[in-house]
Amino acid sequence: MISIVHEDMLSYPEGGEYFSPSVRYPEYHLRHISTAPNRVYDAVRNIFIQAGLDKTHLGMPDWNPLGSYIRPGQNVFLLCNFVQHRRPLETEENFKSKCTHGSVLRAVLDYVLLAVGKEGVVAFGNAPLQGADWNAVLHETGASRVLDFYKSEGGKVIARDLRLVVNERGILGSPTRHVERDESRDSIEVDLGQNSLLGSLAKNRPARFRVSDYNPERTEKFHAGSSHRYVVHRAILDADVVFSLPKLKTHEKVGITCAIKGFVGTVGHKDCLAHHRFGGPEQGGDEYPHDSPARGALSRFHDYVHSRAQGTFVQRGLVALDVNLRRVLGRARCIQAGAWHGNDTCWRMAVDLARIVHYADRNGVMSDKMQRTQLCLIDGVIAGEGNGPLSPSAVSAGTLIFGDNVVAVDAAACRVMGFDPQCIPMVREALASRFAYPLRAGNNGSDMVVFNQNGLDGEALPMALDRAFKPSRGWRGHTGEKHAGAGGA
């Protein structure tokens, strides 16, 4: 079931009124009402109505649209995309294109709270970049205003930073603060073993898995031999329901961000995340399209810097040098760190994590049965194109996408962006479900979808813009993007 709402002029409200609705709907039992219109709240409500949720009670005080998914007293975690705080010189619109907005979070939370009742447990958050300023992210997304509201109403909603290690950096890239949190209490290690999609990459030669800015030796230990281990935060596996609130945006390593890639935000130790393999194709890697002595030297230097003991004066200086060398390469439009369509590693890691969130029990043991309910609502009011996920350019897409199957949601998101799901390996392979712990028995994402009250075949979905989204630099010409004039919303 996929429900999509699109409005050309849909925009986020200001946070001064806590993102409350401007209409006292029959099911809204809280005190505060916004004096200014809040079309995002209206759109979230409409997307649930359009999905046909709790039709018999619509328009009544006991309408509970999420009640068929969430039971009273359950533990619900809302997985946002809070990837990073706003950077110097970044426009407010571009920042809004990369992080879940507080107005979307507030509207969804209101309906989640209706479903869980007084005894339920509700939290939101994710694991942003190791250098992200968590408090700044909450403030800049408007999530802190949401927390202020529920505190004033006596509601039990908490924000969770799921990182187990924080490494904040100065403007030149050198570390300024290092914090390690209680690992024994908050981390659960899940070993997918031979069922990991990464396993097939190491059949002919050892796969030198890497994630930028982390110790490569630790990353390789997490994925050694037939073992493929991920450190997931306990808050995720303790949840009965994980409700994803990702952004509609492009991604330099996997094509799109959206729902499946959003499960990276469940991981406490990011050095277990295989983002690419060392070197180019000639070396058995997918870090960049073509090997060269200069690229190889820079990759080896990056490994050397992050293998050294942290916190020393020399190491901080080397990190700053490495960061700025990579900035120069980025400005020269050089592909690095697996940021291209030939990355055959990152999508596998993302699908691995999606399967863990679906199938791992509270102790991290994989089961043949789904362990928790999955819901997703993609925030595409302001979406991101170009060099996502960290430096997207804002586009006013005016779109929200809701569904109870994260793969079908991502397939619909591809089409709304003007991309072909079969050109995005992460979505294509999840649709095919040819592996253990399938995410769905797919049919190429051509499910019936309700779009602005109209039932459509998934393949017939119109684009949110009058053109396809601009892919990240390394994906141009490889997303099956439609040409301008091929149909808009």
Question: Please, could you describe this protein's structure?
Answer:
It is a single chain. By secondary structure, the protein is an alpha/beta fold. The protein has one domain. The protein is built from 14 helices and 17 strands. The strands form 4 sheets. Strands 1, 2, 3, 4, 10, 11, 12, 14, 15, 16 and 17 form an 11-stranded mixed β-sheet that branches. A two-stranded antiparallel ribbon has the order 5-6. A two-stranded antiparallel sheet has the order 7-9. A hairpin with a 5-residue loop joins strand 5 (165-169) and strand 6. The longest helix has 19 residues, at 313-331.
* Approximate shape: globular
Strand tally is 17
The helix tally amounts to 14
The CA-CA distance between the termini, in Å, is 20 Å
Please indicate the count of domains.
Answer: 1
Summarize the topology.
Blueprint: E1 2-6, H1 39-50, E2 75-80, H2 92-96, H3 102-116, E3 121-126, H4 134-141, H5 143-153, E4 157-161, E5 165-169, E6 175-180, H6 183-186, E7 187-191, E8 209-210, H7 216-222, E9 229-233, H8 234-237, E10 241-245, E11 247-251, E12 255-256, H9 258-262, E13 276-277, H10 293-307, H11 313-331, H12 346-359, E14 373-387, E15 391-403, H13 406-416, H14 425-432, E16 448-451, E17 454-457
Parallel strand pairs: 1-16, 2-3, 2-10, 3-4, 10-14, 11-14
Antiparallel strand pairs: 1-15, 5-6, 7-9, 8-13, 11-12, 14-15, 16-17
Helix pairs in contact: 1-3, 3-5, 10-11, 13-14
